[in-house]
Records
---
Amino acid sequence: MLDYSPERLALQYATHQALHPGTYAILVPRHKTNLPRYTPILIAKASNDDEQWITLHPDPTEHEHYVRVLIKRHADGTGHVISGGGNLRGLKLSRLGSSKEWAKKSRERRAERRKKQKEREAQLTPEQKAARETAKQEIAHKIKEKTLKQINTAAKLGLPG
């Protein structure tokens, strides 16, 4: 499903244009949204190396609820919100790592997950491995059948593809 929210449209415009750092009011046409005609949407672009856009996840189990904020990093590893998030402006953030540190932690977590997966696969009996392969083949066959059915239905209706 396409996201035609005003914020999304303004962000798409800003990313496709070479905008200089600063704050912009972008007018979004009403035929794209359910808002009044040419609703201005404010967006801000980071201006310094110590400023960065991040995503705050208040509850990691809920993937829909997140807030994009512009933060200013300090030398001591903390930062504070300078834009976005409405009432979060001025909020002090601790435990901010550099992008290299986060990438390193991500690689370590990924390696740990792979190691655990290999251990689980090593504990499988030959019968379980055969059953798993059979299930994979059945699923692949069902997907292929469904794809062919969709293509044939589209051809009957005169649709491309």
---
Amino acid sequence: MSIITFPVLLRSIKRRLNLSFVKEELLWNKLIGLDAIKRKLLLLKKSNENTSCSIIDLKDVTGCSVKKIYQSIAAGSLENHQPEDFINSISLQLAFKDKEEPLSITFYDRQFNVEEAVNAWESKARAWEKTVSGLLIRA
């Protein structure tokens, strides 16, 4: 059985759907790509041997934001640490017109990423937030 890598799968999907990405990001278990002209966001997720693909039409998205989730912070802990030291995850949140729950795309997860890289992952999530937000149609 052959293993298909994200880049190979991405090329196949881009060709099949005629997408042209201006921005791509490889995360620990997923890949996202943005076609700004068609206003489509591709989300490829890999778990064990399964891979799923979602195409998100940005015309259905009403908002985009970065969400940080922190672990518990004991009293006095901030005297010797920065708030970033307590981040559990950083996600890009997409809100939809017809859905109550937003879609969450995790950029940083303490379980899978190096703790020292939290600021770099936040910067990447903020850059995606800015790019995607700029493509949303305001009602």
---
Amino acid sequence: MQAVSCLWERPDRPGPLWGQVLLLLAGLGMSVAGTVIAVLGATTVFVPEDFVFLQTTSTGLHAVNSHLIPLIAHDRAGFAGALLADGLGILLMVLWGFRPGARWLWWTLLGAGLCVCVPAVGIHLLVGYTSFSHLAPVLKRSISLLSRVDFLVLISSQEF
């Protein structure tokens, strides 16, 4: 097994692989976002857009049912854990999965991304929670995924 001094450089290509560096940053960003959401979910639970959408307050929700806010906090914690795990998974693939001919890596990243974006956007549209500032991160991710489809079609027919 050959040791690699810099994980984003390849001996057959000078300089860094910028796509790999950008995916590394995306994995780090997802991991940080998962951590931030976990902290917010365990402390304040809600963001201001939540109350605008629900047209109520934390006190109003507690008056309806005292178990409602802990349930929502539990849901946020699950989402945060999934986001953190996805970010770490991307980091592992980016740091050790890049190899010539590794088309599986790109298809795996696309499939995982679709499993996140389609339900996230779909459920928000279904319930009418369409605040742009709330949906901006997942919309940005969806656009990024769609831009990779052409790339995947291209590399499927060529040696990568």
